[in-house]
Amino acid sequence: MYLEMVGKTDIGRQRSRNEDHYLILDSVHLTAVADGMGGHIDGDVASGIAINTVQQRYETEYLQLSEESSYDDLLKFQERFLSDTILEANKKIFIENKESSSFDGMGTTIVAIIFTNKHAIIAWVGDSRIYLYRKEKLVQITQDHSLISELMRFNVFVEKELLFLQNKNIITRALGMNEDVTVDTKIQEIFLNDIFLLCSDGLTDQVQDSQIEEILSENEDNLAEAARKLIDYANFHGGQDNITVTLAKIKQEISESSKETSKIIQETSESSKETSKIIQNTNESSKEISESSKEINETSKKISEADKETSKIIKETNETSKKSNEAHEEINETSKK
Fold first, then answer.
1. Contact 34/108 with Cβ under 8 angstroms?
2. What angle is formed at CA 218 by the lines to CA 213 and CA 219, rounded to 5 degrees?
């Protein structure tokens, strides 16, 4: 699977420090965003612990995942592994809160997503969000763990009344605040050209979903530019909080990638076989030529020896003829006498 991922974070216009952290792990097709809780002590430390825990587990323990299991078993394992990783991050932050008075009360939200052959495994705690942009439509695929979300779920308020609600940024679930936390998970089927957006509420508090959709539509072929414009737009509308986004786009379906790879491997294999055949034929031809050369050399040697023998015979014949002539001359001389 060819997956493009980009990320960007910004301090915003109102805050003195950035309490957001994000992670992109190309090696395992994972990205995550954590938003240190505003108003709490050392929210940046809490979000940093969360992101570091995810990175550490996926760079070590996750790589030991067996490849012998079925795809469905692997899918369930990955969902459980991602959830357990976030639970471990919660435990670390909670312990840090208890052991250090300077960190008491720090917490963080988190959203994370890991991509497999055909699915995205999603996990989240808090009000940071994950959106799916598909076929020019933007849909939020996580549900905020916030006071507003709970009130809307039970029809206490409608969306247009939220503008006048005080304390609307109160979240009902976060990492580090309690020893245990519930991690929500979801498995989402993926398709070619899907774009997933992970973001802190610094974006969604300032930019409406329709505006996010428009920016992605105009920049779906340039994720880095889309990330920049989303943050610029949030800052333009006040930048009241830190703003963090990561974007992931499915650029090639795994099945097509595998087919192309198999085709290349097959063509390479056939070429190698053909090359081996040519080399073998060449070796056999060289052997035949060598044997023919050897036979020619033997024949040449025999001819040379025959030539020597013939020359010897001719010489002997000439000497015999000479002696015969001398004998005839002696006979003639005797006859005359």
1. yes
2. 100
In 160-253, alpha helices (H): 201-204, 209-218, 223-236
User: Contact 85/65 with Cβ under 8 angstroms?
Assistant: no
Res 252: pLDDT? 79
Contact assessment for residue 12 and residue 243, using Cβ atoms and an 8 Å cutoff: yes
Q: What is the per-residue pLDDT across 66-82, written as a single tens digit (0 to 9) for each?
A: 565 788 888 999 999 99
State the SS3 of 248-294: EEEEECHHHHHHHHHHHHHHHHHHHHHHHHHHHHHHHHHHHHHHHHH
- Joined together, the tokens standing for residue 198 give 């992970």
**Alpha carbon of 158 to those of 180, 187, 205, 256, 309: distances in Å?**
31, 29, 17, 45, 123
The architecture of the domain spanning 2-252 is 4-Layer Sandwich (3.60)
115-168: per-residue pLDDT in tens? 998 999 999 999 999 999 999 999 999 999 988 877 777 666 555 555 555 566
**Sequence ranges of the domains in the chain:** 2-252
Angle 97-101-106 from CA coordinates, rounded to 5°: 40
Joined together, the tokens standing for residue 330 give 């002696």
The answer to pTM > 0.70 is: yes
Local confidence band at 278 (pLDDT 50, 70, 90 cut-offs): low
What are the start-end ranges of the H helices in the chain?
A: 43-59, 71-99, 147-153, 201-204, 209-218, 223-236, 254-336
- The Cα 191–Cα 115 span in angstroms is 11
Query: pLDDT tens across 219-274, in order?
Result: 999 999 999 999 999 999 999 999 999 999 999 754 444 444 445 445 544 655 56
